Amino acid sequence: MKKKILIILYNISKAQEHEWFVEMINRDLFDIEFALINGENSYMDKFLQEHKVVVYNFSYSKKTNLPGLTWNLFKLMKRNKYDIVHTHLFEANIAGITAAFLAHVPKRILTRHHSDFHHVYYGSAVKYDKLANYLCTDIVAISKNVENILLNIEFVNPKKVHLIHHGIDMHDYLPGAVSLNRVETIKNAYQLTDNSGPVIGVISRFIELKGLQYLIPAFKEVLLTYPDAILFFANAKGDYEQMIYDLSADVDPKNYRLVPFENDIAALYKVFDCFVHIPITATVEAFGQIYLESLASMVPSVFTLSGVAPEFAIDKVNCFVVPFKDAVSVRDRILFILNHKNELDAIKSNGFNLVKEKFDIRFKISKLEQLYS
After folding, report:
1. Which residues are CB-contacts of 317 (< 8 A; sequence separation ≥ 6)?
2. Do both 148 and 181 map to the same domain?
3. Where are the alpha helices (DSSP H) in 190-344?
4. 181 and 322 belong to one structural domain
5. Which residues constitute the domain of residue 47?
6. In this structure, what CATH number is given to the domain that contains residue 255?
7. Residue 9 forms beta bridges with which residues?
8. Could you say which of 164, 182, 206 is where a domain stops?
9. Do 154 and 178 lie in a common domain?
């Protein structure tokens, strides 16, 4: 008999992880439905409808809405009698797991998508994390970093915690998977011609913890050697936005691109000569999907060891590792990559093979199916 599962997502307009989940989960064993909080008419909403998945939409704007949201989810669960509820992101975890507990849903799973963010920046939210930890039956830790925080800082029962890494669909990154037409579309959209300078890519929200305040000074020095270089910001939005603009004020606009959203990520990576992801501490990043995407795309990459990176990143073997908050080291690594572009085949191949062997999305789907069973 099929198990009936409700997946609850908060503020997710598009996410390949969930798209792959819908496409790959065994529908002969699991009957899946989705509850989207603030997702009505989003790409995710339309994707689910196109794939014949039942979807319910709820709205949420402020904390005073939380009791009403929880009540509405509770009524949905009582009416549909789910075997499993699986929640993603903070508000979904709080409302969804509380509703599932009150509705006596047998298996209540939350995926922990943040690490020590609340402990460092929003101490008042930690009690809500602990409440959700208590009310759920299982927690998916997306990295060893998150697992450590759950076990050794929040003291969750180890029997509840399951290490299940994020993954990517390697079929999207195999040689030849990204057509030249897709790459040309990206180049044309963002004025990247064959005569443009080298492109340093960064895919990151404009928030302090991502370390962009160290990348921009490094890039300014790169411009002394490569005056036509381009710093390409994708996902360029966030509450640190004004600081980023202030730091970039003396950079010629022709030397950077600001892109709030790009749907074809796999093609976007193909225009990068170098990729940089440098969160400011080891624990501030919960996972870091872009670590995987950049390596799978065979783009020489500069990383700090945050999130999942300490589990695989080896300096000068599959990437280039720099210390936290060190603009000089970031500059030096970018320049090394640009100066030795034709000598990095082994590093690029090692990165690709690592992701293929350890982080294909199919491994994650298989582990989730085991957890659901």
Report:
1. 347, 350
2. no
3. 212-225, 241-247, 265-269, 289-296, 327-339
4. yes
5. 3-164
6. 3.40.50.2000
7. 36, 88
8. 164
9. no
Question: What is the predicted pLDDT for the residue at 145?
Answer: 97
Q: Which helix (H) or strand (E) holds 351?
A: helix 345-358
What residue type is assigned to position 22 of the chain? V
Mark whether 148 and 223 lie in a shared domain.
no
d(CA 232, CA 78): 48
Question: Do residues 238 and 127 both lie within one domain?
Answer: no
Nearest to 113 by CA among 139, 134, 79: 139
Examine residue 364 and state whether it is found in any structural domain, yes or no: no
Contacting residues for 258 by C-beta, under 8 A, at least 6 apart: 233, 236
Tokens, residue 30: 């699991």
pTM: 0.93
Task: Return the residue matching tokens 């450590």.
Answer: 148
Whether residue 310 is found in the same domain as residue 253: yes
pLDDT computed for residue 183 by the predictor: 95
Judge contact between 240 and 173, C-beta under 8 A.
Answer: no
Q: Which residues contact 15 (CB under 8 A, 6 or more apart)?
A: 9, 44
Number of domains within the chain: 2
Residues 212 and 343 in one domain: yes
What are the beta bridge partners of residue 85? 6, 108
Give domain status of residue 8, yes or no.
Answer: yes
Task: Tell me phi and psi for residue 344, to 5 degrees.
Answer: -115, 20
Give pLDDT tens digits along the chain (373 positions). Answer: 899 999 999 999 999 999 999 999 999 999 999 999 999 999 999 999 999 999 999 999 998 999 999 999 999 999 999 999 999 999 999 999 999 999 999 999 999 999 999 999 889 999 999 999 999 999 999 999 999 999 999 999 999 999 999 999 999 999 999 999 999 999 999 999 877 899 999 999 999 999 999 999 999 999 999 999 999 999 988 888 888 888 888 999 999 999 998 989 999 999 999 999 999 999 999 999 999 999 999 999 999 999 999 999 999 999 999 999 999 999 999 999 999 999 999 999 999 999 999 999 999 999 999 999 9
183's enclosing H/E stretch is helix 180-189
Under 8 Å between Cβ of 161 and 141 = yes
Same structural domain, 199 and 346: yes
Cα–Cα distances in Å, from 43 out to 18, 31, 131, 205? 12, 21, 31, 19
Of 126, 148, 164, the last residue of a domain is 164
Is 363 a domain residue?
no
Q: Quick one: tokens of 230?
A: 């381009």
